[in-house]
Structure formats: C-alpha cells, structure tokens
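User: My advisor, Dr. K., asked me to get a structural model of this assembly before our group meeting. I'm new to this, so sorry if the format is off. These are the inputs:
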Amino acid sequence: METRSANKSVVIKSTIGAIIMFMFAIFVLPPLYDLFCEALGIGGKTGGPYQAEVLTIDDTRQVEVQFVVTNNATMPWEFYPVKDKVFVHPGESNEITFFAKNLTGNDMVGQAIPNILPNNAADFFHKTECFCFNSQPLDAGDDAELMVQFIIDPELPRSVNTVTLSYTIFDITDRVADLKITQL
Amino acid sequence: MAHGPSENFFTRWFFSTNHKDIGTLYLWFSFAMFLLGGAFAMIIRAELFQPGMQLIKPEFFNQMTTMHGLVMVFGAIMPAFVGLANWLIPMMIGAPDMALPRMNNLSFWILPFAFAILVSTLFMEGGGPNFGWTFYAPLSTTYAPDTVNYFIFGVHLMGASSIMGSINIIATVMNMRAPGMTYMKMPLFVWTWLITAFLLVAVMPVLAGAVTMMLMDINFGTSFFDAAGGGDPVLFQHVFWFFGHPEVYIIILPAFGVVSQIIPTFSRKPLFGYSSMVYATAAIAFLSFIVWAHHMFTVGMPIAGELYFMYATMLIAVPTGVKVFNWITTMYKGSITYETPMLFCIAFVILFTFGGFTGMMLSIAAADTQYHDTYFVVAHFHYVMVAGAVFSGTAAIYYWLPKWCGRMYDETMGKVQFWLAFIAFNITFMPQHFLGLAGMPRRYSDYGLQFADWNMVSSIGAFMYGGAQLLFLFNVIRTIGWGKPVEDPKVWEGADGLEWTLPTPPPFHTFSTPPVVK
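Assistant: The format is fine. Below is the predicted structure of the whole assembly, which you can bring to the meeting.
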C-alpha cells in the first residue's frame, strides 16, 4: 500500500533526525561551546602556559590585579592569596603566591580552576607558570606556597583598569585515581 | 466493516488504537495532571499567603515549585494538545485514523508510567526534584537529591512519548489527507500542529541529551557541567534553552491553531489572512531556534551576543503581531456571538498579547538585568502559558466537546467559569508584575514584609482560579453524562471544516471512505 510505505519513510526519517539531534546535543554542542568560548575569549577561561615573548613594558599604565579564591562545596583546605592585590604595568612579568594547607587528616588532591573578570581581559592575561596547570597533592596536615607568574598584555583594552583573577579549588581526590585531569 | 469500540473496558482503553479513544485518554490524563500540578500551585500560594514559614518546609517548597512546573508543562499542557490533535487531525483532514495507530497507543501509555516515576520521588527519602523546572547544573547534578535519577529517567520517557506522538502527527498530516485536501487548504490547527511536530522531533532529543549528560556527570564521572573536570555549568544553560525556547512555542503554537479555528466560527467570517497565518507560524518556529540565550542575559555574555539575542528576540514580535492582527481583523465587522469558547478565545487574544508585551520588556538585555529571576518573569510566562495555552485548551474543550459526545454543555455554567477564571487569573498574576518590579525574587519560600500585601492578593486569586477549574471539571462530566442532546448536528452554525460534516456524535470510525474536498 502506498500510504503504508510513505508512513514508514516518515518514521525512518524522523527517527534518524531525532537520533542526529540527540548526538548533536551530546557530542557537538559541548565542544562547539568550548570552541566558541575560546575563539571569542569569553567565559573567563585563561589560556595554557604562555610562551614568554619580549614585550615592551608600558610604564605609563598601571593595572590593578585582584585575587579572589573560593573553596568549592566540600573542599576543606585553607586556601588564600598571600596578597589581595598588586599593581602592575602591562608587559612586565609578575610573580604572586597563594597559600594552601590541608587541614584534614587525609592525603588529598586539589585542583584550582582559574577565571578572569572582566571577560574581555581573559585573552590578555598570560600565565607563564601556574600551579593550576597541575593538580596539587597535599598530604594530611601539609601546606604549600603555590606560585603564579603572569604578564598582562600591553594590548589589554584601555577600558580595563582592574582585572580579577579568581581561583576555585576543587577536591579531586576521588577522581584522580581513575581520571587524569588536564587543565587547559 | 463498521463496528464500535470493544465491549471490554480493559481491551477498549488499554489496547486502543482508535484515534478518538486515545485522544480521550490523553485529554483525561492531562486534566488529571492539570489538577495535580494545580494542587502543587495551591500549596505554593498557601505558603506565600503570608510572609514567614507557615505550612511547609523550604525544602518541600522547592520540590513544589519544581514539580508544579514539570507537571504543568510536560504532563498537562503538552498531552492536552496531543489529545486534541488525536481527536481532531484525522477528522479535519478526512483521514480514517492516525497513520500509526499502534505507536499512538504506545506513546500514550508511556506517559502515566513516566509521571508515576516522577511523582513517586516525592515520597522517597531525600524528596523529589528541588532544583526548579529548568534543572540548572550544578543544582541538578552536584547538589541534587539522590532521586534525580528517577527524574532523568522520567524525562527520557516523556521525551520518547512526545517524539513518537509527533512522528505520528507528521505521518498523518503528510500522508493521510483526503483527496483534494492540499496543504494550503488544511485547517490552521492542523498546520500549527504539523510545525509543532517538527519542532518536537528537533528539540526533544536535545532535552534527552541534556539529561543524559547530567546522568553521566552524576553517575559515571564525566564533567560536562563540572568545572572541576574542565566542564562548564553555563554549557548546561545553553543546551537546556536550546531545547527550552522552542519548547515554549511547542506549547503555544497548537493554542494559536485552536484560536484560529474558533474565532472565525463565532465571528461568522472566514479567518482573515490564512496564508499569512501559516507563514507566521513557520517564521515563529524558525526564530525559536536562534533566540535561546535571552533566558541567560545575566550569566555573562559579550555585548555583541547580548545585542544579537535581544534583537532576534524582538523580531519574534513581528510574526506574532501578524497573528494577533489577523485574529482581530477576523472579528472586525463580524456578527459576533459570545458563547463560552469565544469568550475564552477573546480573553486569549487580550491576555496573550499582554504577556507578549511583558516578553518584549524582558527581551531588552539591559532591563532584563533587573527583571531576571523575579516575579515579573513568573507573571510573564503565566500570562502566555495559562492565559495562552490553558485558556485556548479550555476553549477547545467547550467548542468540540458537544461535537464529540453529542451533548451540549451548560452555557451559563461555562460563562460563570469563564468570568471566574478570567478575573481570578488576573488577580493572581497581575500583582506578580508589581512584586517582580519591586524586586521580589522567584522560587523562594519566604519574602520581605514589603511584598506581603500583593502576595496575599495573588494567593486569593490563585485559590479562586483553582475553584474555577473544579467547576470546569464538573461541567465537562455533566455534559458527557447528562448534557442536553445537541439539536443541530453541526453544533455551531458558523462552524466550518470537515469535522462538522460528520454525524454528531461521530461514530467510532469516521471517513473510512475519504470525503471529497473541493
């Protein structure tokens, strides 16, 4: 019957369409989102290790860089920046430290995730070295000074005078065993 | 061979492949869910009657707001329109039944199980979903109650049901039309449902994808939405609203279809601008895919993104305006009578337009920073969902029920219900605009004293509105059981369309021989 085969064709095409949309949601949208954020420099995600170039230091301009930290949900560590803020010239290399202490009686692994505000500053905040590039194992009761080296790009938009670097520290002890975390 | 329904109750309803019986099942199911979701709303409004915690705990309040949204959207409104589609589409296009009757049975009978799973979580340890109907991660992943897996499975089942229902509608409309019933002769209800069905097939899988990613994050150690593993919670919002915005048009487009059938009947004029209505529906459906981030103006977006989503959103007002003007022009200089279905439709046009205007206010990115997540948003979407979808659904029942069962509803009771619902609706939701503009955030079980008076007014309206629905239920049962038989087999003298050429009530099988459409 003609209608019957036409119905069958609608069912097959629609089912394929639905499956494609399902795959699209799971396998295409997340990487696409990351690509967009990376390409547009939004989402406040900072880049990976920066290959230092010789940048001219812009003495005429001073940028305030603030540091804030957050402990994610159940993370029991003591974690804070040694200095709340620094004033830097674009182009110069700066080094700052954070203090972390494992207050528990268990060996743990932490992972800090950086974020930059305002969003349009993220592309101009270069980290030549950062503890956030790796996870941080701390044995029970241990503490550590964690170091970040950064350069503010002289191309930083003129409208930006204050940059906030935020770290959220996560407890990844459970997953570090079976999952290698690589932070971009 | 003409024969009636099975004598055996179980065989007739559980094994049914008849579009009329399945339509009836859908409609009763959705009304049951409507009362359940309404009961949740009554609990919410009772708690918000006065500031401070009176009746329930905040945790339970959160479960109520979540379940109210989920049950109303997925359990009441969507199945109601699928039920109408089942009853009406074959009769409107001159088909003997839906194209895939067995799949029709399956897509209905999944639903009670899906909602049994969802609602059962309320009785489990840890309680039901409490993260809002939009279930943003990480509230719905890291911080979710353990029952979230039941919720995920329930959503998967609902999605499967909706997709099967839509495939059925697409196949019916494309392949089962009577000879001569070209696309541009189809009644608008059929057109809006065809477009809605395509939307459903496109976006329900995205919802399934979103909950699947949640499932993986919760149980299998992935990090789609978890920043600790390199994921991003904002991604969840993008995926959700990529589904969620078309979803609101899935809810409202069939309602547009219903209104476009009823207004011409009681204006005694053909629908003004039929083809522009079809194109406007298609335009709205297309635009619905490219505006999702206007739900997320405050999460942080580049200015270019905010501007794009703002202008694209405003653009939707153009095809919607075409529709509103067409309805008004249809009524213009018509010889209008105000039977209950027409009253509901006129209220729909007025209140839906009002809700559209508050939507325009919300679309302004800069202003939305203030309105975001306040009661202004709650008021806006109840104007378009309740006064939009629910009013038109009620109108549809009053309009077609006499045709379906051959008995007339009580006109006085219908009018009383209309005025009660209309007034109560506005008492409930109009003050919520003021509360929102004054800064009252949504989804909280308590509020500052400055919001007390309008909340009490809103609660009183909500209880009245709930009462109006019981009157509706009574009127429907009374009509089916004891209503006066319809005198004119056409029911409404101004009605036009194939379904009105059938005997009243229509026999179990109709259009076994296709009608001829000139």
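One thing worth pointing out at the meeting: The radius of gyration of chain A is 23 Å.

User: Perfect, thanks a lot.
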